[in-house]
Amino acid sequence: MPSLKQTEQTRSWSQWKKNGEHWVWVNASAVAICLIMVIGLIGLIVVRGLGHFWVNDVQQIQLQNGTLWLGEQIDTEKSITNDAKQKSKTQILYKVGNREEYSLDFKWFDGEQIKNTTKPEWVAVIERYEWGNAYGKITNLHWQGKTYGINEPQALDNALQAVQNIREKIHTIEKNDIGRTNYQLNEIRLERKKIKADNSLNEIQKNKFYAQLYHKEKKISAHYQEIKKELDKHHKKLEEQGYVTFVLSDNKSKQINLGHIVRVYFPNQMDVVDRTLFYFEKLWEFIIEDPREANTEGGIFPAIFGTVALVMLMTLFVTPLGIITAIYLREYTRQGLIVRIIRISVNNLAGVPSIVYGVFGLGFFVYFMGGSIDELFYSFNLPSPTFGSPNMLWASLTLTLLTLPVVIVSTEEGLNRIPRAIREGSLALGSTKFEVLWRIIIPMISPSIMTGIILAIARAAGEVAPLMLVGVVKLAPDLVIDGNAPFIHLDRQFMHLGFHIFDVGFQSPNIEAAQPLVYATAALLIFIILLLNITTIIIRNNLREKYKALE
Fold this sequence. Notes:
Blueprint: H1 4-18, H2 21-50, E1 59-63, E2 68-80, E3 88-95, H3 99-102, E4 106-110, E5 114-118, E6 124-128, E7 133-143, E8 146-149, H4 153-197, H5 203-239, E9 242-247, E10 253-257, E11 261-265, H6 272-288, E12 291-292, E13 297-298, H7 301-332, H8 337-349, H9 354-377, H10 392-416, H11 420-428, H12 433-462, H13 467-470, H14 497-506, H15 511-546
Antiparallel strand pairs: 1-2, 1-5, 2-3, 3-4, 6-7, 6-11, 7-8, 7-9, 9-10, 12-13
């Protein structure tokens, strides 16, 4: 016979199962596991990505045969040999740099081949615009006709600062002056083709316009030649600055032109404060600079700009379309079979693979709409397309279709929660239906609208597959917003963080160098998505507090 205590425990267990509390614990456990996995994944990405910018010590590796190497230790792997003893074997990956000498930046060393490692203070790391880092010993500096020894570090700092000033002038001329001049000359070329294709003008009128364009072009070309001379002067001055004499680990001496150097630092001489300052300097450079070395060096500012601009433009398109569609389906149409079919179709659109939207955007927006716009308004420029090629406008419209179901469903859910009495009371007081919607209903459902926008931004910011067909490129020379009228150029292609991750991670010839940049770019993309969502959530919460009295 069971005891009274056992009977009470059985009854308590049965009551616990009957109330369904065990399912509550199962759901809570599942949510906790998912949350731990998400936090772990984000933590891995952030740690590996942001850790890339920390300065590592450079080791001098002496092998058993006496050969010397210099490099940063990157990774260690252990494997089991296939011989009868099944011994453990250690492989160590070093970043040895000097790509023009060794063909690759990274090299695996067998742990048994390494005799010893040291960290000499004289090791210098030269970061270059091409060929990656160089590791070795700087013996002397030749700058502006003078030679300086290794005991004069201030001379090297002054030389690099002078070179940096010249490079900034070159960058300003190339980006602003030459870029603006080329844009103006291209506009004149298009204007000349437009006049030639205009049949409403007679030959006298055309010749008059041609003469005006000729004088304008002559003036701009003369200005361009002046700019070109100044640019050539700076380039020549850059090449004549001098060079550093550099000794590699195998005692081979080489010269590196100062104009090819980004920075020089001595990692084994840096303390924690120096490393921290250097870390933030590299991180800031990663955010604001343009990419170089096939996107494996430098920064990713064009990709950041393109991602944010695309999301903002998509939000401007999807918000009014989603709200108007939801209001029409809920407030104006007769609720019947057709409306139910439309709602089912909208819900099903949310599950369509994104690449399908990309194919649709390429066919409808790029080829059909863009081709039609070119034939109607830019026929003079054909066969060169203007809007009939992938660009920012068609990419944003494609993402608008991709995220439109989310905004429609969220807005409709907000409309369904509004009591019927509010509508009838407002109409009874003499308001029109539009006034009720504009002054009462839409403000009350604004938190639901913002929820839809949050979900749309979260999905659109990470999409890559459709963008590969409708506008994204590996490297965009110009941003979609610049100082040339009309200042916003939606017909241009752009860079995107998601595609940058794909390109660097899977298309780069130097996988080891690209891997940390993949993590860093992914961490930055997550941060941007969080920042956009947090901003939208704050706006939603403020709207919810503002219109709480109406609920």
